[in-house]
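Consider the subject:
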Amino acid sequence: MKYRRILLKVSGEILAKEPQRVAEEICWAKGEGIEVAVVMGGGNLIRGVEAQGIERETADYMGMMATVINALLLRSYLQRQGQRVLLVSSLPVLGLVPPYEREEALHALGEGYVVLLAGGTGNPRFSTDTAAALRALDLRCEVLMKGTKVDGVYEADPVKFPHCKRFDRLTHKEYLSLNLGVMDEMAVFLSWRYGLPILVFDFLRPGGLKRALTEEGFGTLISSPEV
């Protein structure tokens, strides 16, 4: 395998729709000797940036709590398959989910645990994409893998514009200059600043994680020119 430690970002929509399959694909990666940390979104329950009639900060905290709910769901499915799981949150829930501590998470990864990272960054006005980039850097992951509903990065919405161009590879700078919308700009900027590759792939397709890890060109790689 090209990568031995990954940060998987999975949307709340995909996780809510197919928690069993998401867990199975993570278990496959673990069986291949890959260390896996996971950041999940909460968009299946609430998107803070889209909430109407609620103060932005309150809506964002509600979104962070939604990621905790999704993390509890994924933990149950992983444990059902015999995986050891560490669930922590940047927005801890007393008596249920402890706070994120970097050294604890690093130790757990090294010991073979799947590490679930809930609560976003713990601060309003930051996306879970940005949380994924921060945690990937924190935990020395080799790649940030964003599982989405499309098979990579396009120059426009492929649903609305079916003939638009799909990119196999982009540099971080190219992604930002083209103002593409699949990944939060702050997450891409952080990844660019610290040399973290991002792989955007289709996680709705069964076996998507395996293909992204084993097949060249499955998804779009956003990286430095030399990677």
Remarks:
- Residues 56-80 form the longest helix (25 residues).
